[in-house]
Design goal:
Its EC number is 2.7.7.65. This protein is an alpha+beta fold and about 300 residues long. It has two domains: about 130 residues, PAS domain (Beta-Lactamase, 2-Layer Sandwich), CATH 3.30.450.20; about 160 residues, Alpha-Beta Plaits. It has ten helices and ten strands. A five-stranded antiparallel sheet has the order 2-1-5-4-3, with helices on both faces. A five-stranded mixed sheet has the order 7-8-6-9-10, sandwiched between helices. Helix 7 packs across helix 8 and helix 8 packs across helix 9. It is elongated and about 90 Å long.
């Protein structure tokens, strides 16, 4: 008998010296048969305040409570060991992230007798996970962002263009595209230098991005001094108005360009195209056609808009 008492005392000391918090719930009564005293240090609630499973549920973040309780009950009824992460309410009103690891104990008849498990404080792990998610999102955004101008890059542009082309074809809706080219930009760079040239690109990109007026419009750097504006569900007349608005916005910038044959200030040439794509149509052929309109705008004196 003495050995049994010593053994029980040993295991009790072992359980209560760990950072994990051991507990046991009687399945029939749904009352705590035991919970480690470490719970008070972690959450601020004394061990004797954990009377029933209801105390456990009530001391859970409202956004987590329903799914965690329903999940744990269903798994326990099936006799399946399980674990769940949730935010546990502290006595001071704050929350800590907890991972509950649950083992289902059956009696000789095979019915659920009790639940035993450990609670682990995973708050620091969650903070690290949240930081990693945030960093991954930042990296994702950076991978789709042009490093110089801050607008979307060609990689993102190609992806969005493919999706909008497919959507337009499925929905039989018009798709319009505007390609912009800064007039005589090489001469601008040669005259002012690359630092001011880069600043010009940034200002033009920021200004042209104001052509995005709806949530599904999309603006990106196409390459070099060229940019593209994608206008889903936009007919030719509406696209022409957007192009004129963009031309006016660039003119209002009044960026000096003293050696441009087109204007004493920075201007852009624009190729505009609209299509309601059919199964036989090609996205590449459409973009080539818009690019040809841009070429015509440049050939006809620049600072022009050519629609097709």
């Amino acid at each position: 008998m003495t050995d049994e008492l010593e053994s029980a005392a040993f295991y009790k000391t072992l359980l209560e010296s760990t950072h994990a918090i051991p507990w046991k719930i009687d399945w029939e009564s749904m009352r705590f048969a035991y919970i480690g005293p470490q719970i008070e240090k972690l959450l601020g609630w004394s061990a004797d305040s954990w009377c029933s499973a209801n105390d456990w549920a009530e001391r859970m973040h409202p956004e987590d409570r329903d799914w965690v309780v329903n999940f744990c009950i269903s798994q326990s009824k099936e006799g399946v060991d399980h674990e769940a992460d949730y935010r546990a309410l502290c006595a001071d009103g704050s929350y800590l992230w907890i991972r509950d690891v649950v083992h289902v104990v059956r009696n000789e008849a095979g019915a659920v007798d009790s639940l035993v498990g450990f609670m682990f404080d995973i708050s620091e792990r969650k903070k690290i996970e949240d930081k990693l998610v945030h960093l991954q999102q930042e990296l994702k955004e950076l991978s789709f962002k042009d490093g110089l101008t801050g607008v979307a890059n060609r990689r993102m542009l190609d992806s969005v263009l493919d999706k909008q082309w497919s959507h337009a074809r499925r929905s039989s809706q018009p798709l319009s595209v505007i390609i912009f080219d800064i007039d005589y930009f090489k001469q601008y760079n040669d005259h002012f230098g690359h630092i001011q040239g880069d600043d010009c690109l940034r200002q033009v990109a920021r200004t042209l991005s104001q052509g995005v007026t709806r949530h599904n419009d999309f603006f990106a750097r196409y390459g070099g001094e060229e940019f593209m504006l994608i206008l889903p569900e936009t007919d030719a007349a509406a696209a022409a108005k957007v192009a004129e608005r963009c031309r006016s916005l660039i003119f209002k910038l009044q960026l000096p360009h003293p050696i441009s044959p087109a204007s004493p200030v920075v201007t852009v040439s624009q190729g505009v195209g609209t299509i309601t794509p059919q199964p036989s149509d090609s996205l590449k052929a459409f973009i080539d056609a818009v690019d040809k309109n841009l070429y015509r705008a440049k050939q006809s004196g620049r600072n022009k808009i050519v629609n097709g």
